[in-house]
């Protein structure tokens, strides 16, 4: 099992789907993540999304749990778009449990994922995209050694206007 100082990424189980659905249907959580405009998702859609990801071999996804309560998912994280030939992947992370915000769980999760990617999977580069206004996430990524690599100007529609996405690696 992977262990951080505060969190433990673990397998996503069917019992996590309802909690993950709550997180993904929350605008305050989803809008800062970037990506496609928000839409409500059912528990079935969440299950259909998460169940096959680890089977295709191009992603590793985990529920994130605090060390003192491994049964409760406070978010999810993972590596996706893995390339065996270039030894690269993209990183994604979501924390839906507001009681965990600002307490170092995100920073710890990123550190565990980076270690897992480099040490276990022998990757050479990890890239992520972050909404330019998501300062909390950017600080977590910078603390884990990520640096800004590029800016996608007006790359996404967010909260009534176009917003920049920052590429970090």
UniProtKB/TrEMBL annotation:
Keywords: Transferase
Name of this protein: Protein N-acetyltransferase, RimJ/RimL family
Phylogenetic classification of the source organism: Bacteria, Bacillati, Actinomycetota, Acidimicrobiia, Acidimicrobiales
GO molecular function: acyltransferase activity, transferring groups other than amino-acyl groups
Pfam family, one: Acetyltransf_3
Keyword match Isomerase: no
Residue ranges occupied by any N-acetyltransferase domain in the UniProt entry: 7-169
Cited Gene3D superfamilies: 3.40.630.30
Top-level taxon in the UniProt lineage: Bacteria
